[in-house]
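Reading is simple: each integer encodes one residue's backbone shape. The lines below illustrate:
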Amino acid sequence: MNIEFIIGLITVAISAIGGISAFLYRRRVDDVARKRLTCAEALSTLLDWLEMPYRIRRRPAGNDETRSKLTESMHNLQARINFYRAWLQVESPQVAHKYEALHQAVKTVAAPAIQQAWEQSGISQDAEMNIGSLGKFDIEKPQDDFLKAVRDEIKVWRISRRR
């Protein structure tokens, strides 16, 4: 074999390996970006649920249309939460487990506040917009656990996906 042929073959092989490596790295970076965005949206949906007691409490008094919109908003939020619960089960059972714990914590703290907000009459003047606190929404630990699981899941240079 001719030395130029061997050098050419080695050059082609190195270029191919470099191209494949760059492609795989770019694919992983895109996958991480997609997961990061979806996990952020999943978290945002749970935090939106925590906002519902305030929205309910600030509804205009005697307004059936607003009451209907609030109910529809709650149904839409629940549907989105269920979507993210299923999506995370498929994508990452470890993250899904932490999301489920966060979901349970959100439900536990929000349920009494939502009930209390519905039991109170709606507002009829601007001054009633200042409603104060509707309870302590302590979800810091499960939220931190979820975010740690997400960070672990989306590391760009993670060697193995399955544990």
